[in-house]
Amino acid sequence: MGAYNRVHVEIRGRTFNLLADDSAQYLMGIAGMVDERMKQVMEHNPQLNFEKAALLTALNFCDDLEKNKLQKKSGQESSEDHIREQVMEYAKELEKATDVIKNLEKELERVKSENNEQLEKLRREYEIKEKEILEMIDSM
Question: I want to staple 7 with a disulfide (CB 3.0 to 4.6 A). Which of 21, 27, 36, 133 is the partner?
C-alpha cells in the first residue's frame, strides 16, 4: 500500500478526519456526494437527527450499489442469452449447410455413376462398331 492521505471533510456542518490511501481530491469528492445525499434525505425527513440521516443515507447508497450490481448482472445475462441464441442459430445454419453438402455429395456420386455407365456403354458400342468395321474389311 502507498502513503496514506489525511483529509478534513465537512458533511452537513460536521468535520470529519479521513485517513486513506486514496487521493485527497477523491476523498473530498466522495464526502461531497455523501453531504449532498444526506442533505436530500434531511430535506425529505426534517425530523431526522444527524445519526439517523447518516444511516438512511448509507442505506440509500447501499441500495443504489446493489441495484447497479443487479442491473449489470442482468445486462450480462441478457448478453449471454443473446450469445446463446446466436450460437443456436449458427448451429442450425451449420446443420442445414451440412445437409446441403451431403445432398450435393450424393448428387455428385450419382452423376459420376451415370457418367461411368455412359462411358462403359459407349466403350461397348465402340467395340461393336469396331468389330463390324473389321468384319466388313475382312469380307472385302
Answer: 27
